[in-house]
Amino acid sequence: MLALALSAATLGAFAHGDEPHGDEPHPTGAAVAAGPRFEAATEAFELVGRLEDGVLTLFVNRFASGEPVLRAKVELEAGDRKAVAAYDDAQGSYAVREPAFVKALGRPGSHAVVVTVTAGDEADLLETTLNIAQEAAHAPAGGRPGWPLLLGGALGAAVLAGGGMWVLRKRRANAGVPA
Predict the structure, then answer these.
(1) 1 with 165: CB under 8 angstroms?
(2) Which residues are paired to 46 by β-bridges?
(3) Which of 31, 48, 30 lies closest to 39, judged by CA?
(4) For residue 74, how many other CB atoms are within 10 A of its CB?
(5) Which residues have C-beta within 8 Å of that of residue 141, sequence separation ≥ 6?
(6) What are residue 115's phi and psi, to 5 degrees?
(7) Which residues pair with 117 in a beta bridge?
(8) Contact 93, 57 (CB under 8 A)
(9) What SS3 state is found at 153?
(10) Percentages helix, strand, coil for the chain, rounded to the nearest 5?
């Protein structure tokens, strides 16, 4: 029973989505990340934005080729707030860390966002909406129970199984049935 309870606690480690197998490329971190996100596209650019841990991260690509757009000027406007996204060479992404802007986007509700991308002589406006559910505003990052919760559940199942076995043995002993 203990082995069954402990093995049940590890089932989450085997779960996975519909990611490709074999020779197909795996999706980028932006495609599988948790947290509120938005997407937008025009004939020139496409972008994915993710709000997580107090940072709005943007991945900007050319629409026709999917090639990353590096070191562009990326400006955002949401309501009466404006921000400029800084390019991160290590990640190949853009990040907005301005606390007031990120906090305003993190509030529950629908937030219209206009992103201006200027790369060389090309410029475009991308319009999108970031939806923050009431529950998402208060949920822990990742949205999954952590190892402490899984371990606690497994330990609780083991204690219950052990207690059940002890009660069963006690009843058999009182009834005169050999264990």
Answers:
(1) yes
(2) 41, 61
(3) 48
(4) 25
(5) 34, 35, 52, 53
(6) -115, 125
(7) 74, 124
(8) yes
(9) helix
(10) 30, 35, 35
Chain-centre distance for alpha carbon 137: 13
Q: Which residue carries 């000027």 as its tokens?
A: 73
The CA distance from 126 to 118, in Å, is 11
Distance CA 146, CA 132 (A): 22
Distance CA(118)–CA(150), nearest Å, equals 47
User: What are phi and psi for residue 82, nearest 5 degrees?
Assistant: -130, 150
CA of 45: how far to CAs of 50, 86, 114, 141, in Å? 17, 18, 13, 29
Residue-by-residue pLDDT tens, the chain, 179 positions = 556 555 655 655 555 555 555 555 545 444 445 679 999 999 999 999 999 999 999 999 999 999 999 999 999 999 999 999 999 999 999 999 999 999 999 999 999 999 999 999 999 999 999 999 886 444 455 455 555 666 666 666 666 777 677 777 777 777 776 65
- Residue type at position 158: A
Amino acid at 170: K
pTM for the whole structure: 0.58
Residue that has been written with the tokens 């049935």 in this structure: 177
Closest CA to 63 of 87, 43, 82: 43
Burial grade of 166 (CB within 10 A; 0-12, 13-18, 19 or more): exposed
